[in-house]
Amino acid sequence: MFRMIFIDESQRDLLRIVWKESVDDSIKTYKMNRVVYGTTCASYLAQRVLKQLVMDDGHNYPLAASSVSSDMYMDDLLTGAADIYSAKQLKEQLIALFRGGGMQLHKWSSNCKELLANSEVSDGDVSLTIPDETKALGLLWRPQKDSLAFSVSANVDTCESCKITKRSVLSTTARIFDPLGLISPVVTKAKLVMQELWRLKLDWNDSLPIQLESQWKRFVTFLSTINTLNIPRYILLNYALKIELHGFPDASEKAYGAAIYVRCLSNSGEISTNLLCSKSRIASLKSITIPRLELCVAVLLAKLAQKTITSMKISFHSTVLWTDSTIVLAWIQKDPSVLKPFVRNRVGAIQNLTEVSAWQHVPSKENPVDIISRGIDPKKIQDCNLWWFAPSFLQDHSVVSPCVCSDINDNELYQREFKKTPTDPVCLVVQGQEVLPIINNCSSFTRLQRVIGWCVRFVRNAKNSLQPSKGNLTSPNYLNH
């Protein structure tokens, strides 16, 4: 792809290489006429050329133009169609569109053998049989089963004489590539060990403490079991009548995360709920209350839900976000202006990204993301139906919140995040016909003024004891003293 993009003649002097055939030859300088893979600008130029190709010829190939605009990642195209006829049309348009730009698509792969056989490209660029598995942006795709899988090799010997260090722990953790967060609970388990090593301030080549070493060996021993997972790529139902998005967050003192599930209801009444994606974070070593952590993960869920809705070509009938924190649920329903900065900023972000009415309460025991907040051993995740298919109440035709929130107005953690409201000053005026005794005790109006003046001075001095008024009342306007 990169070699099919010419550099503008005015820019070729900026892209030079030096070369010589042998040690004795003089150095020659060459100007590059085409984009060089690996340069800083190469990625941008490749994407910009594809965008221009769609702008120039996209009107002739509408299916291909839409696919290239949204399903292209660098020089890889991951796309599809609802039926074979549409897929064939899409394939033909893609070939024609890229041919117009002097490019040829190759390394075709599909879960439909008929689509592979009907190919306009050379036999060397396409396999006429469906492979057992192929790479798809870092994940394994098994076309025959149309499922996603993982290929993780711990590459760590668990023998007694082997030394396990912080470096080897990080190396193994980094091998787990999970862009969709399908095995976030397993990744969290590894990250928690890594965080503990940082807390202990171990150097890269220091051996792990005995307890952590035993825990890590047990984790690594069963890490390869995730390679047996077969996760359905297509999670919708045919002829879906209604498609809903359901999100769950959860937090603990160690970690927090959020997951998105897609719930489908077909014309026949069949209901399916499947995990779509998730995000996980390790909690900071700095002490923070659980309600605040729950609020942070609520923000994470709001962002993840918004990203999912805008990036997928699906019109969701409704969006429901479930939290097991009654405190967070109550904060979200408040005006952010009455809350302290930490909570106010996050509640404001949640309200900007989601509808307040979308948030519902779910019991902790039915929250699938509780597994992320604790982590799970690799051998257990395959049989964890709560993680893969969400709570059982989502299988009901009418989804109702399984519990009612209790009153939390007396909860100290809830109340402490509200700003203190100053008491409003009140002026009370009493109108009556009675004459004050002080008036009857003064023989003249001048004497009454002097008495009131002394009273006023006393009150002012009591309020401002650092600079009190002194001396006799000499001014005729006694109330100014």
From TrEMBL:
It comes from the Eukaryota. InterPro entries: DNA/RNA_pol_sf, Retrotrans_Pao. It holds the Pfam family Peptidase_A17. Coiled coil: none annotated. GO terms for biological process: DNA biosynthetic process. SUPFAM superfamilies: DNA/RNA polymerases (SSF56672). This is Reverse transcriptase domain-containing protein.
